[in-house]
Design brief:
Elements lengths: L5 H11 L3 H20 L8 H5 L5 H16 L3 H17 L6 H7 L15 H9 L4 H13 L3 H5 L6 E2 L6 E4 L10 E4 L2 H14 L28 H18 L17 H11 L1
Antiparallel strand pairs: 1-2, 2-3
Helix pairs in contact: 1-2, 2-5, 4-5, 8-10, 8-12
């Protein structure tokens, strides 16, 4: 999902200064926008000038983008809203004005309906874990289920962020990966703590035929690529794919009506923790 247009890269670099997650979301949105523009003989860089000169209506262009997202990609309404926000921010970054009242009148956004995600209980979690063939995924899910981390927050945990000397074990969440942009400490269960310690020992075990990785405090706990480590975002994508397969094997892949999103997601583990604590 590479974008090479200088106009796009300068915009994404600006967005990324405050939030790497927003940058990632906006990059996906611009990628889809690029696909639409290609059908109209334009690209992310070439569309700016005609929009500035009002040769092409910015409202019509964004409304066409909404239609494209609905008809071609069949995304959830919340995803559509996020990608449209990316395009709005992109054109405004390049000095193309958008009047809110005019936008609301000419661009018809799908309504975002609040729907309760399916709750999971301890039996569901045990069932999911029993179908995990991936050692990493099992430890990751157990960590989510006992600490109430957001999915990306857990992916960003480093070796140095875990204090095994406290009881219960304390995990530090870095502010740059927290949704609220505020660092916090989270305590996890003894079961999750032991699972993480066993995982770390396994990850840095002696290799007979390949180089044995050197342990560093800065290493991400849940990465398997110690020599050339993955980013938290890359790990999240891979873990989510693995989780989807496990849900199917466990017979828990039910989807929300009318959209592609499943009723049980990685976020369900955070909701489980909040339910237990309430």
């Amino acid at each position: 999902m590479e974008l090479t247009a200088p106009t796009a890269m300068s915009f994404l670099d600006s967005v990324g200064r405050n939030s790497s997650q927003t940058r990632h979301t906006y990059q996906i949105g611009l990628f889809h926008f690029q696909k639409l523009l290609e059908t109209k003989g334009h690209a992310l860089d070439t569309i700016i000038e005609p929009l500035l000169k009002n040769e092409i209506s910015v409202y019509t262009t964004i409304n066409d983008f909404v239609t494209y997202l609905i008809d071609s990609l069949k995304l959830s309404n919340s995803s559509i809203a996020a990608y449209v926000a990316a395009v709005r921010s992109y054109v405004q970054f390049h000095d193309i004005d958008i009047v809110i009242k005019t936008f609301k009148r000419k661009v018809k956004m799908p309504t975002i309906l609040e729907e309760e995600e399916e709750s999971i209980d301890e039996n569901d979690i045990r069932r999911i874990l029993s179908f995990c063939n991936s050692r990493r995924l099992k430890v990751y899910l157990l960590t989510l289920a006992t600490g109430g981390f957001r999915a990306l927050e857990a992916c960003a945990i480093r070796n140095c962020d875990i204090d095994f000397t406290t009881s219960p074990t304390k995990v530090h969440v870095r502010k740059e990966y927290a949704k609220t942009k505020k660092a916090r400490d989270v305590f996890i269960s003894d079961e999750a703590s032991k699972a993480i310690q066993d995982w770390i020992v396994f990850k840095y075990r002696h290799r007979k035929y390949t180089p044995t990785p050197t342990k560093s405090d800065e290493d991400l706990v849940f990465t398997t690529r110690v020599i050339t480590p993955a980013s938290p975002q890359q790990m999240y994508s891979k873990l989510r794919e693995d989780f989807t397969r496990v849900l199917a094997q466990a017979g828990l892949e039910k989807r929300k009506e009318g959209i592609l999103r499943r009723t049980i997601t990685l976020h369900s583990f955070r909701r489980f923790v909040k339910t237990v604590l309430s």
